[in-house]
């Protein structure tokens, strides 16, 4: 049974084939997978014309990346395609862990209300890619070219040079910047003589996409040593269209091609689902755990993102979610640098922020892999003892690692942050993404992150019942900064007046102020990617403008 038929996209003859000289583009993205297409959409949202090149003419085959985290959905909301993902996907917040035939514990990844997006949705990667292609067709300034394969790349101080092969012949082009999103086996990385180093774990897993109808809840189920797959592990996720993703641990000695054969897969599924179960096998694949990354993600005018830059084991849903955060981090910086509002050194912060984020993902992924596949000896004894204890000892459950699930990166050590002067009791610290909450703002009832999705810097100031003359003065001075600042003022009483250039935000439930630990006089400076750059209990215009200079990697000379 086939629940999905891949579209085939039209190849169009590139106009560069008729040009004697290379045609110049501001930005080129190589790779039309999820990360590459999100990069293109983000570029368009910042007004950067972008050309996307891909050597294929369709979307991915099989479910592949299926788990999309809350933070990725919030980024996709800003780009105009988050709601379609949520509408089609399977929403879940709960996970259950089993040892042999017993449930040892369960967890809730988003136990509190007051968030627009769930902890996760499950959706087959081919749907995600189709939605991105559709969205690209709606956006001006984007050109997506199928059957355009990059065969050579080089750069100098002024531009990047590319040679591209098509069914009609080769052409050359140049660009100001190149973003490489061509996957774990990146051909661009190889052309430039760059390496991705790390660890390959000696284990293999089988993916089986199974079509079946049942009433199991939309949860993440993970088994250690289940009776139907003794000595190994199994993972179950529900996807759209009654498609279920099942991962079976195989061991390092398994033959990948042999294990994908239906006569090998079906007995495993029968043992798990029952002899009487009705199901159909749609797609299979075998993968190996790998955790690796490039030493640096920026190389002059060329930037690597997603699997081309870093690769992690699939448990934890850290691959595509991390790649989407890569582009979210990069594109606003490219816009400010190319417009002259920030120096080129701002682009160095892509490395200083996203390399540590990749290391954090690799650390969690490595630990998960070591727990799921401990081998023999002391590591397995520890793993099995932990699982036994976790049934009755809550402390042991914190040691059980079936994949620490993706969380947004916090850039704690970023050079763009301004350190706190005052104590705050909130996880939204400098370098962290903003929290969400229901508010009333410009346009009526909405979510706070939607308001911050305008692509620029935002100020959130918690006033008293009314703005004083002094507050109006120094808040007004913020409009003299090097880039436009949107100024949102919360806490005013209903009849409180605001000067021109400021906007009211009504935190009616008080949830936003609680999550930010805000008191009257508190101010928060948010970057275009919605990460917090600075916060104060008692700010003034000089402090805020200096923090803005720092967030732009500018020399901090603002008086």
From TrEMBL:
GO molecular function, one term: FAD binding
The protein's required cofactors: FAD
Annotated FAD-binding domain residues: 28-360
Pfam families, per the entry: FAD_binding_3
Record key words, sorted: FAD, Flavoprotein
Organism in which the protein naturally occurs: Sedimenticola thiotaurini
Protein name (Swiss-Prot/TrEMBL): FAD-dependent oxidoreductase
InterPro entries listed in its UniProt record: FAD-bd, FAD/NAD-bd_sf, RIFMO-like
Signal peptide as annotated in the record: none
